[in-house]
Structures are given as structure tokens and as C-alpha cells.
Amino acid sequence: MRRNPLYACVLIAAIAASPAAQAEPNQSKGLVSSTAEKLMSEISDWLVSNADLPSIVEPPSIEFVADAKLEELRHQQPADPHAGASASDKPVTGSQSGAIALYDFGRRTIFLSDKWTGTSPADQSILVHEMVHHVQNMAKMKFECPMAREQLAYRIQNRWLAQFGMDLESVFQIDPFTVLVNSACM
Predict the structure, then answer these.
(1) Strands 101-104 and 109-113
(2) Pairwise CA distance, residues 130 & 45, whole Å
(3) What are the backbone dihedrals phi and psi of residue 63, each rounded to the nearest 5 degrees, phi first?
(4) What's the rounded mean pLDDT across residues 162-169?
(5) Where do the structural domains in the chain lie, given as residue ranges?
(6) How many whole angstroms separate alpha carbon 168 and alpha carbon 145?
(7) Would you say 126 and 94 are in contact if contact means Cβ atoms under 8 Å apart?
(8) Given a cut of 80, is residue 69 above it in pLDDT?
(9) What is the Cα–Cα distance from 172 to 186, expressed in whole angstroms?
């Protein structure tokens, strides 16, 4: 069944605006976690329908961590592409250093900033990017070097944003040259 990502966006926005989402920080974080899990299913279907990626059975784990922990994980990236985190993701506007999300290939885990809410297409595109890495991992896709897998993830993230009249450059200041550099085997 093909699902509409616009539906996911509206659903997530409605959940985030609900009184329960405003109640308490722990309750709110639980709601955001639930939102991420629901959105992963929508994204997985969208990737199969719109990005010609294989369907996956096992979803990744998701962990919300502080930005300092994301930076720590980013700098612990091992040389083996299937042993550690994919850490080339760029920061959101206003935060010009550090990662905003990481995918750990060994643990099959997406690490999202604890500031992530999933209520905007930009936030959702971050999860799209990391889900591409999970599909690459589960499908055992081969690349010339670890960084080469970023090109596909950025391209698909940009395709997601385009549905909402956005692109990587306007939202994250990631231009085509930056994608080229971030995905080059050196």
C-alpha cells in the first residue's frame, strides 16, 4: 500500500500540537519517540515507492541524545563502514557545527538530536536521510568508500524536501558542491 508523506506530515503536526504533547517533558519525549516510530513506517514505504530502494523488514532502533553525545559519536566513527556511525550529516540552520543525526551501522540505530520533533518536513527529512543508511545497511549495499553512501542519502533527502517546495540548500545550506565533497572517496 502506497502512503502519502503529506498525510504523515499532517498527522505528525496534529500530534505535536495536541495538549498531550504540551503536558510534561517526559510525556512529550515519549510522544516524539512514538511519532518517530510511526514516521519510520511511512518513510520506509515512501523509499520503496519513490526512491527505488528495497523494502526492509527490520526497522532501526531510534535513540534521542544530546547534541554533545552526537558530536562524541561523530568523532568515534571507525574506518569500517559497517562497524560504526555515518557521521557526515550537516547541522540545521543556526547550528553551524556538529551532527544533527547519525546512523550506527553495527547497532542498526538512528541517533537523533533530543531537539528533533518530526513536526516539519525538514525534521522529517533528517529521518529520511538516516533511513536511507539503514536500508543501505540491511540490503548490504556496497560502495567505493564509506562516504560514497552519503550521495544517495542526500539525493533522497532532497527529493523528500522537494515535495514541500524545499531543498537541501535552502533548509540546511547544503549545496551540490557540499554533497559532492561529503560523498567523495579520498
Answers:
(1) antiparallel
(2) 15
(3) -130, 135
(4) 96
(5) 5-182
(6) 23
(7) no
(8) yes
(9) 24
Cell for 185?
572517496
Nearest C-alpha neighbor of 8 from the set 48, 32, 43: 43
**Does the global pTM surpass 0.70?**
yes
Query: pLDDT by residue (tens digit) across 6-62?
Result: 333 333 333 333 333 443 445 466 778 888 888 999 999 999 999 989 999 999 999
Q: Where do the H-state alpha helices sit in the chain?
A: 5-17, 19-22, 25-50, 67-75, 121-138, 149-162, 168-172, 176-182
Residue 73 burial (CB count, 10 A): 19
CA torsion 50→117→183→108, rounded to 10°? -80
- The DSSP element (H or E) to which 141 belongs, if any, is none
Phi-psi region of 94 (alpha: psi -120 to 50; beta: other; left: phi over 0): left
| Under 8 Å between Cβ of 91 and 113 | no
Check if the beta carbon of residue 109 is closer than 8 Å to that of residue 103.
yes
CA 96 to chain centre: 18
